[in-house]
């Protein structure tokens, strides 16, 4: 070989080496770009606007106008009527101030971790409850459908309570208030007080007879109550108008509906503290009975209250968080909303017992005055000797302390004859110990207390307007728990779905505005939500911790939030919360089995409540409510497990490409092994199918999209074929 031929060969070899280096460096840069790629799930950053417009993807998810609007929406949903009329009752019943300790412990063990879990999955997957649980495990997709069914059941009767509040609100613009005095009945000869009212009280009579016009049992329909029918229609119109544009319309209303109740509660607290006896009520409320903390029933009721106070399992929490930005600090939101809810309950308890303390003081003064007159009468008749009465006591204007002194003296002296005297001890604690909750607190006890307020119509208007706003805040979240997942899954127009949903709910809700409607409200409240929601949340916990994988979920959170959540949540989600929820479910089933199914009926002749058992058809309805609410879970599992529905949409054959971009992907996911937070290279993933609008964006290459199928994805290979039609690939 000539000498110069070796030089030529060396030069050729160098060219070949340089070419290979160039090729490898190009591939490395492509790999680097791919490794830096990011899976965008309906998130549109400013720099991606042009790319999105070119891809002709019109499905853009709405977003909250501000973080404050979102927090107010979550607070409005979680803070509801239960904070005002359920928590104070439980606090009084279960040990006063001592009840706050088990409640706080269970809030940390069950409440915050599960609330954080729902916020996280909603924010990351950016879908309603159906889409979220379909994504995590298609076989457990029934969890989302069950949430929607429970939301619908609850919305049916919850809006009836808002209708009741609207009725009382409309009747509060008069002086005196219509429930201030018992009505008079006139006949041919004389005028007398309505017997039913005389046997009970003015507020009790107004609630059962004037407002509800209630029948004596659930079997006696009695026809529609037209006043409540109009109020229910008004309530559904308000909800429909507020929700018709989704968070764009309801979000603005949140500023008023979420904040106004706090203004009213603070005003009530200040006003009540200036009234005589309010301190007695607060002292009675927060006097701890530590021995009650050892009773399992206290912990069961505290856990149930924590569970429902935060709205777990309804789907509203997931729906609201799905409109957040991907990098929002949902851990901070979970802690903030949970403690706002707790302190709202404490504030409401202070207000309730300050007002009830004032009411008890008024009733106690009347009791002392009536019994003092009886003692004076006995003194004149000679039944009681004047010598035993201390000389400094004037029975015509006796104080509470002096009356109790006289009462004790008479009781000791007339030990055998004392019961025949029918004297009352008139202790303020006896009045405060009368446990009142729910409608009995709001529409009877509290309304009676307000009749003794100066300018009572003003306070009545404020109170019932507060109840309306508390109810609406919860209703918005409940309806969002239905609308959002259905719109995400079936791609129907939100406006049309909202109108249909509200119209259907109003028509079904007519059973609650019959004369026997209050009994159906009790039935739905007891059986439509409690057990189904517990089962739903247990399955949510299991789906994330064991089906999806708790380690993978924690990694996802780290990628989404920018920091790893405290290890505390790992142990709560994996061990403590599931065990606590299972214990609560068992305790609830046992308690339901031991408690005879029935309701408190108002008996007109006796002017009092009487417990009645449900008829056979009523028991069937109770069972159906629970079965229908949880039925979607096993139904979807069987359908998916046995492939009873054609899942052809779940493969790449149904994917349409244009200009190298994915325009339409299947909704049904087989994403058990796919990470929620997608930033991994394709070799680390098992080529999952995608949900709607999920695609990879090549960083540094604004005109090139890749789908993670194969090394570079089909989108990469087809980037130069803009006009390629749909095909089975």
UniProtKB/TrEMBL annotation:
Pfam families xrefs: SNF
Membrane disposition: Multi-pass membrane protein
GO biological process: L-leucine transport; neurotransmitter transport
Subcellular location: Membrane
Keywords from the UniProt entry: Amino-acid transport, Glycoprotein, Ion transport, Membrane, Metal-binding, Neurotransmitter transport, Phosphoprotein, Sodium, Sodium transport, Symport, Transmembrane, Transmembrane helix, Transport
A cellular-component GO term for this protein: plasma membrane
InterPro entries referenced in this protein's UniProt entry, alphabetically: B(0)AT2, Na/ntran_symport, Neutral_aa_SLC6, SNS_sf
Transmembrane feature ranges: 70-88, 100-121, 142-169, 226-247, 259-282, 302-323, 335-356, 458-483, 495-513, 533-554, 575-594, 614-639
Record: residues binding Na(+): 76, 79, 83, 341, 470, 474
Subcellular location, principal: membrane
Reaction equation(s) it catalyzes: L-pipecolate(in) + Na(+)(in) = L-pipecolate(out) + Na(+)(out); L-valine(in) + Na(+)(in) = L-valine(out) + Na(+)(out); L-phenylalanine(in) + Na(+)(in) = L-phenylalanine(out) + Na(+)(out); L-proline(in) + Na(+)(in) = L-proline(out) + Na(+)(out)
GO-annotated molecular function: metal ion binding; proline:sodium symporter activity
PANTHER family the record matches: SODIUM-DEPENDENT NEUTRAL AMINO ACID TRANSPORTER B(0)AT2, SODIUM/CHLORIDE DEPENDENT TRANSPORTER
Family: Belongs to the sodium:neurotransmitter symporter (SNF) (TC 2.A.22) family. SLC6A15 subfamily.
Protein name: Transporter
Organism encoding this protein: Gulo gulo
Lineage, highest ranks first: Eukaryota, Metazoa, Chordata, Craniata, Vertebrata
């Amino acid at each position: 070989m000539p000498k110069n031929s070796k030089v030529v060969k060396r030069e050729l070899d160098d060219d070949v080496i340089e070419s290979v280096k160039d090729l490898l460096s190009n591939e490395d840069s492509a790999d680097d770009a791919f490794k830096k790629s990011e899976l965008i799930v309906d998130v549109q950053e400013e720099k991606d606007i042009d790319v999105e417009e070119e891809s002709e993807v019109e499905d853009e998810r709405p977003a909250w106008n501000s973080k404050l609007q979102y927090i107010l929406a979550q607070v409005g949903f979680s803070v509801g009527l239960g904070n005002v009329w359920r928590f104070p009752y439980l606090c009084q019943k279960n040990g006063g101030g001592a009840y706050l300790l088990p409640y706080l412990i269970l809030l940390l063990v069950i409440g915050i971790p599960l609330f954080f879990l729902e916020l996280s999955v909603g924010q990351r997957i950016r879908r309603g409850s159906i889409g979220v649980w379909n994504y995590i495990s298609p076989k457990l997709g029934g969890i989302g459908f069950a949430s929607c069914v429970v939301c619908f059941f609850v919305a049916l009767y919850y809006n009836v309570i808002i209708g009741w509040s609207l009725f009382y609100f409309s009747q509060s613009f008069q002086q005196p208030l219509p429930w201030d005095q018992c009505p008079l009945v006139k006949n041919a000869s004389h005028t007398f007080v309505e017997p039913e009212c005389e046997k009970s009280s003015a507020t009790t009579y107004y609630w059962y007879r004037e407002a509800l016009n209630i029948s004596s049992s659930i079997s006696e329909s009695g026809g529609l109550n037209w006043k409540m029918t109009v109020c229910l229609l008004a309530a559904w119109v308000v909800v429909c108008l507020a929700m018709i544009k989704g968070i764009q319309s309801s979000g603005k209303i949140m500023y008023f509906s979420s904040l106004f109740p706090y203004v009213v509660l603070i005003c009530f607290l200040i006003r009540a503290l200036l009234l005589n006896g309010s301190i007695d009520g607060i002292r009675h409320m927060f006097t701890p009975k530590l021995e009650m903390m050892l009773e399992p029933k206290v912990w069961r009721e505290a856990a149930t209250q924590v569970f429902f106070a935060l709205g777990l399992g309804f789907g509203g929490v997931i729906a609201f968080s799905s409109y957040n930005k991907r990098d929002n600090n949902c851990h901070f939101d979970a802690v903030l909303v949970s403690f706002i809810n707790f302190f709202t309950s404490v504030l409401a308890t202070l207000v309730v017992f300050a007002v009830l303390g004032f009411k008890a003081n008024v009733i106690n003064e009347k009791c002392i005055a009536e019994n003092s007159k009886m003692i004076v009468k006995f003194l004149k008749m000679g039944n009681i000797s004047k010598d035993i009465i201390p000389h400094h006591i004037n029975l015509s204007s006796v104080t509470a302390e002096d009356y109790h002194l006289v009462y004790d003296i008479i009781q000791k002296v007339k030990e055998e004859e004392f019961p025949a005297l029918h004297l009352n001890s008139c202790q303020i604690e006896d009045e405060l110990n009368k446990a009142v909750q729910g409608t009995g607190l709001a529409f009877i006890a509290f309304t009676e207390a307000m009749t003794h307020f100066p300018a009572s119509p003003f306070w009545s208007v404020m109170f019932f307007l507060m109840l309306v706003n508390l109810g609406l805040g919860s209703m918005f979240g409940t309806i969002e728990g239905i609308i959002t997942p259905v719109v995400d899954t079936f791609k129907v127009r939100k406006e049309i779905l909202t109108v249909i949903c509200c119209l259907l709910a109003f028509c079904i809700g007519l059973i609650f505005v019959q004369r026997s409607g209050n009994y159906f409200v009790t039935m739905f409240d007891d059986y439509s939500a409690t057990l189904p929601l517990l089962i739903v949340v247990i399955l949510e916990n299991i789906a994330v911790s064991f089906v999806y994988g708790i380690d993978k979920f924690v990694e996802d959170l780290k990628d989404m939030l920018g920091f790893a959540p405290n290890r505390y949540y790992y142990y709560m989600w994996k061990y403590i919360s599931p065990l606590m929820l299972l214990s609560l479910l068992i305790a609830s089933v046992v308690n339901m089995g031991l408690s005879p199914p029935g309701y408190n009926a108002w008996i007109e002749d006796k002017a009092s409540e009487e417990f009645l058992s449900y008829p056979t058809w009523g028991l069937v309805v109770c069972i159906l409510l629970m079965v229908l609410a949880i039925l979607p879970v096993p139904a979807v599992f069987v359908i998916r497990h046995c492939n009873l529905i054609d899942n052809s949409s779940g493969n790449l054959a149904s994917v349409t490409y244009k200009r190298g971009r994915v325009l339409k992907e299947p909704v049904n996911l087989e994403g058990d092994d796919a990470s929620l937070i997608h930033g991994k290279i394709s070799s680390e993933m098992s080529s999952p199918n995608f949900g709607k609008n999920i695609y990879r964006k090549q960083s540094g290459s604004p005109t090139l999209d890749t789908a993670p199928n194969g090394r570079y994805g089909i989108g990469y290979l087809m980037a130069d074929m803009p006009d390629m039609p749909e095909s089975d690939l």
